[in-house]
Specification:
One of its GO terms (molecular function) is heme binding. This is C-type cytochrome. Keywords: Heme, Iron, Metal-binding, Signal. InterPro entries: Cyt_c-like_dom (IPR009056), Cyt_c-like_dom_sf (IPR036909), Cytochrome_c-type_DH (IPR051459). The chain is mainly α. Helix content is 31%, strand content 7%. A hairpin with a 2-residue loop joins strand 7 and strand 8. Helix 1 crosses helix 6. The radius of gyration is 19 Å and the shape is globular. Bound molecules: heme C (HEC) (2 copies). One heme C binds next to helix 4 and helix 5. One heme C binds next to helix 7, helix 8, helix 9 and helix 10.
């Protein structure tokens, strides 16, 4: 574990045994063959023209346009679909059809069995930096749940389908390298996400989402883990060229992205980054929260 504190080293070794995913036990190692036939969610043309179909459409709209349609629950510049690509349909991009049939499920993150509504509330609180999330019986959670249910039509219940989540990318033998990550970022990411990770806006809305800074996911979000970001990036980025980075490049650039400041972890313990690191980050995968890089304490938060 000590090795993680030496984040200033060119290369930071990462030991597989120290990775403790916060996620529910059902996610744990099922060999996922990407070659296996993927589950196919229904097409919009199959939606019935009734009250149910209307609610599905509302959930879809909220999922892709979250910031604009539910501003009171979004504290950054993101939409759900920024991390769950293709409207929550894309395999290996934590698709909703992979998630919905797997709840209720135990999550280490809050040490209890979470309903699907509670799982959605978690994404509002952390990924969307939204403060108090919408109530479980709110119109927002209801519409999003109905949308996820519809995408899961004919999916088996409680089966970990191929394409669920962001499949793990093996930890590179030499760990990750922040300097190499900066190079990958400059060469393959900055064109869309901006040299300072700030994204790109047209009017008030982001057309390219920010990767760090005040409008990005907060320090409590799953994406702040380098291993999770590496998995997302490897399968989905650069946009339209998923799978083109090597595992090493994915880890390096994930570490580079996640060494940058973002909104504070809302679970902050007694105002202390160190206490928060011990309670919530020390055993949450690979992350830099509360560590020192180039003499700077990471995880101080930004508004
Ligand atoms: C910054 C990226 C990001 C944003 C934005 C985001 N999520 Fe997530 N979401 C994640 C990550 C990371 C996970 C964890 C996946 C894992 O560990 O494999 C996740 C998991 C989930 C899951 C559970 C997936 C499963 O298979 O168990 C659901 C459901 C979900 N998100 C819904 C949403 C909704 C709804 C929104 C918008 C309110 C949203 N997410 C916004 C990154 C994001
Ligand atoms: C061609 C433009 C483009 C390039 C190049 C690109 N991205 Fe993205 N990226 C996007 C878009 C657009 C989204 C949101 C996807 C959506 O909403 O459908 C996104 C989403 C993301 C997200 C999740 C959302 C967020 O803001 O946190 C991360 C993380 C990310 N990209 C990292 C990277 C990294 C790392 C690279 C370089 C290896 C990269 N991207 C290259 C366009 C791009």
């Amino acid at each position: 574990m000590k090795l993680f504190l030496l984040a200033t080293l060119a290369s930071v070794p990462v030991h597989a045994a120290t990775i403790a995913m916060e996620d529910q036990s059902q996610l744990q190692p099922v060999a996922r063959s990407t070659a296996a036939a993927q589950f196919q969610p229904p097409q919009e043309s199959e939606l019935p023209d009734n009250a149910y179909g209307k609610l599905v459409k509302q959930g879809y709209a909220l999922f892709v346009d979250t910031k604009r349609l539910a501003p009171q629950f979004v504290g950054n510049g993101l939409n759900c679909s920024n991390c769950h690509l293709d409207q929550g349909r894309l395999a290996n991009s934590a698709p909703l059809w992979g998630a919905y049939p797997m709840y209720p499920a135990y999550r280490k993150k809050n040490d209890k069995v979470n309903t699907f509504a509670e799982r959605l509330q978690g994404c509002f609180q952390f990924s969307m930096n939204g403060g108090t999330p919408p109530a479980a019986d709110s119109p927002e959670i209801t519409a999003l749940s109905v949308y996820a249910y519809w995408l899961s039509s004919k999916a088996p219940l409680g089966v970990d389908l191929p394409g669920r989540g962001y499949p793990d990318v093996p930890t590179p033998a030499k760990g990750y390298d922040l300097a190499q990550g900066a190079e990958v970022y400059k060469g393959q990411c900055a064109v869309c996400h901006g040299a300072e990770g700030q994204g790109q806006k047209v009017g008030d809305s982001y057309v390219m989402p920010p990767l760090w800074g005040k409008d990005s996911y907060n320090w409590g979000a799953g994406m702040h883990r380098i291993n999770t970001a590496a998995s997302f990036i490897k399968h989905n980025m650069p946009l339209g060229k998923g799978g083109s980075l090597s595992d090493q490049q994915a880890w390096d650039v994930a570490a580079y992205v996640n060494r940058h400041e973002r909104p504070q972890d809302p679970r902050l313990v007694e105002g202390s980054v160190e206490k928060t690191r011990l309670k919530f980050h020390a055993n949450d995968g690979i992350n830099l929260y509360g560590q020192t890089v180039d003499g700077v304490l990471i995880g101080q938060g930004i508004r």
